[in-house]
Amino acid sequence: MPQALYLRAAHDARVAPFNLREGRPGETLLDVAAVGLCGSDLHYYKDGGIGSAQIREPFIPGHEFGGWLTEDIAELNLRRGALVAVDPNKACGHCPWCQEGHANLCPNVEFIGAPPFDGAMANRIWVPRGQIVPLPPEFTPLDAVMLEPLGVAIHAVDLAKPRLLERVALLGCGPIGLLILQVLKAAGAGEVLAIDPQEHRRAMATRLGADRAGDSVADIQAWTEGEGAPLVIEATNNPLGFRDAVLSARIGGRVVLVGIPDGDTYTLPAADARRRALKIKFSRRMGEVYPRAIALVAAGKVDVAALVTHRVGLEEAPEAFRRHAADAPGLIKTLIYPNGVADAR
Questions:
Q1: Which of 5, 30, 193, 204 is buried most, with the most CB atoms less than 10 Å from its CB?
Q2: Is 160 helix (H, G, I), strand (E, B) or coil?
Q3: How far is it, in rounded angstroms, from Cα 184 to Cα 156?
Q4: Contacts of 179 (CB under 8 A, 6+ apart)
Q5: Rg of the Cα trace of the chain?
Q6: What b/e readout covers 101-114, taking b as 16+ CB neighbours within 10 angstroms?
Q7: Contacts of 279 (CB under 8 A, 6+ apart)
Q8: Whole-angstrom Cα distance, residue 191 to residue 323?
Q9: What sign does the CA torsion over 196, 197, 203, 206 have?
């Protein structure tokens, strides 16, 4: 019988049998190849929800995933067995935000893997054909999974608009932060000053192109002789992340907030931000970025495989949630393989 990982409430993740629903018009069935354990999945696990998206009944998480087609899709020139990625965002297409080209802000969105919409931490999943993303033949399940978080990073850098050779402070070297780092470098940013409290993540940031890596905002202030950076990108889960971004920014600087704080609350002394007259943007999900994400991976300009430190089967997934929630040492990104840990069928 098919199996799935269910989040039932905060700190309650269980693998159990599930009944695969019937497909709907316009959908196709995928055998899930791999699915990423994302920071937002961890917020559902740790806090029981994010804002209005609360766990009100057991649901299956997982929005970063790839799978194998169980049938031909003639309109996409795809054959059964092909590996594909999936854009989890199904916007309504009719609201003012969709009409203005901001489908990531659609208030009527049906987002795979956000309650109440079940995700891909299961053996199989039905997905709308319009959300299927064809992949180059050399791509692996790992590549397919990592396109969604890479898309989040691309969108964040689009909002940041780094200037050529501009110094950037990057707060947070988890998977999203490390992808942002690589996209910044590909976009022509200058010195990147990375901050993370975990040593192995700082080491990975250095490996992937950070010019300096430290463990606190005090390092940013020291490296810039108290001036701060003209551009700060925050990608942490820390309620003090907004504050730290402000303290890392120079007068008149720009701040892009990408992370989701634990407890869904920021702590911020207003005077520091006001006196710097900062320009602040919040980043949510992504726009139409999959073609660029695929191109960056295919060209070797972004190393997605370096971020994947752990690969587990579905039965090990509850323990993976627990370890990530506890910030266990050595973790960056865990991929779950519901049909067996492998990168090829």
A1: 5
A2: helix
A3: 10
A4: 146, 149, 150, 152, 153, 302, 304, 307
A5: 20
A6: eebbbbeebebbbb
A7: 252, 253, 254, 255
A8: 33
A9: positive
d(CA 59, CA 47): 15
Q: Which helix (H) or strand (E) holds 279?
A: strand 279-282
- Residue 298 DSSP SS3: helix
Burial class from Cβ neighbours inside 10 Å (0-12, 13-18, 19+) for residue 284 reads middle
- Regarding beta strands 132-134 and 65-69, do their DSSP bridges make them parallel or antiparallel, or are they unpaired? unpaired
Using an 8 Å Cβ cutoff, are 198 and 172 in contact? no
**Cα dihedral across residues 149, 152, 154, 157: positive or negative:** negative
Distances (CA, A) of 255 to 153, 234, 247: 15, 8, 10
Task: Enter the tokens of residue 290.
Answer: 């999959």
Question: For each of the chain's 345 residues, which pLDDT tens digit applies?
Answer: 889 999 999 999 999 999 999 999 999 999 999 999 998 999 999 989 888 888 999 999 999 999 999 999 999 999 999 999 999 999 999 999 999 999 999 999 999 999 999 999 999 999 999 999 999 999 999 999 999 999 999 999 999 999 999 999 999 999 999 999 999 999 999 999 999 999 999 999 999 999 999 999 999 999 999 999 999 999 999 999 999 999 999 999 999 999 999 888 998 889 999 999 999 999 999 888 999 999 999 999 999 999 999 999 999 999 999 999 999 999 999 999 999 876 444
- Mean per-residue pLDDT of the chain: 95
Contacts with 124 (C-beta within 8 Å, 6 or more apart), sequence order = 2, 20, 29, 30, 31, 32, 70
Which helix (H) or strand (E) is 318 found in, with range?
A: helix 317-325
pLDDT digits (tens, 9 = 90+) for 61-108: 999 999 999 999 999 999 999 999 999 999 999 999 999 999 999 999
Enter the pTM of the model: 0.95
Distance, CA of 214 to CA of 232 (rounded, Å): 15
Q: How far is Cα 155 from Cα 331, in angstroms, rounded to an integer?
A: 24
Identity of the amino acid at 158: D
